[in-house]
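[worker-b] picked up task from shared queue
[worker-b] task type: protein-ligand structure
[worker-b] ligand name resolved to zinc ion; SMILES cross-checked against name lookup, match
[worker-b] sequence length check passed
[worker-b] input payload:
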Amino acid sequence: MPELPEVETTRRGIAPHLVGQRVSRVVVRDRRLRWPIPEDLDVRLSGQRIVSVERRAKYLLINAEVGTLISHLGMSGNLRLVELGLPAAKHEHVDIELESGLMLRYTDPRRFGAMLWSLDPLSHELLLRLGPEPLTDLFDGERLFQLSRGRSMAVKPFIMDNAVVVGVGNIYATEALFAAGIDPRREAGGISRARYLKLAIEIKRVLAAAIEQGGTTLRDFIGGDGQPGYFQQELFVYGRGGQPCKLCGTALREVKLGQRASVFCPRCQR
Ligand SMILES: [Zn+2]
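[worker-b] inference finished, payload out:
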C-alpha cells in the first residue's frame, strides 16, 4: 500500500510535468473507485492550467486555477506520465491529457483509490480533521505527550491515529518504536515526556529516510511503471517476527495491536 513517503515521491515525480500545463481533456474509463469519480470532472478541469501539486497526509492535491483534483492512491493506485494516445491497459481508469503531449494516467487494480473534485480541498470532509504533517514543526513529542494523557490505548495505534499525526503507517510506527526503544503494547498515557520527545524524532527520521530513498526513483514517473521504490532502507523489525533482533540477537515477537501486525524486540523495547 502506498504510504506517505510513496505519495510524497509521487508528488515530486509528477509535479514538474503538470505545473504550468493546461489540461486539454479528461478521459474516465471507469468511475467506480472508492467513491465514484464525478461525472463532470472533464468539464471542470479541461481548459484549466495546473498551478501546483501539493500533498496533505496521503492525499495529492492537484490545484487548477479554479478548483482542486483530490487524489488518493488507495491500496494499489499509481499515477504516472505517458505519451498522449498510448492505449490503456486494464485497470488504467483515468487519463488527464495535457497540451504538452503527455497525459497523467491513473491505474488502480483494486479501485480503493479516489479522484474527487473540490473548490476548497482543505475543508473537504476527508481532510478537515486530519492531524499535523509529521515532518513539520506542528508535530513534536510534546504533542504526543499532551494528547496521550489519560489514554489507555497502546502507543502504537495511538501514533497511527490520523487525528494525532498523519502518515505514520504500520512500517514507520513499527520501526520508530524500535528505534526509540518503546514497547508498542505500552499504554499511551503512561509514557513519559522524554520518551515521546525521542519517539517523535525517530518518526521524523524514518519518514524522511524513506522519502530520500524514494528520490532515487523520480525518473520512473515518466514512461516507466509509476511504481516508486518502496524504500529499500534497512528494516530492523517490520516483517521480521521470529527472526533475531539486529541489535541484541533476541527473537523478535509479533503481536496484533489495533488489528495490525506489530513486531518488536522484547529486550530492546520496554
Ligand atoms: Zn533487541
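[worker-b] attaching auto-annotations
[worker-b] The first helix runs from residue 4 to 18.
[worker-b] releasing lock
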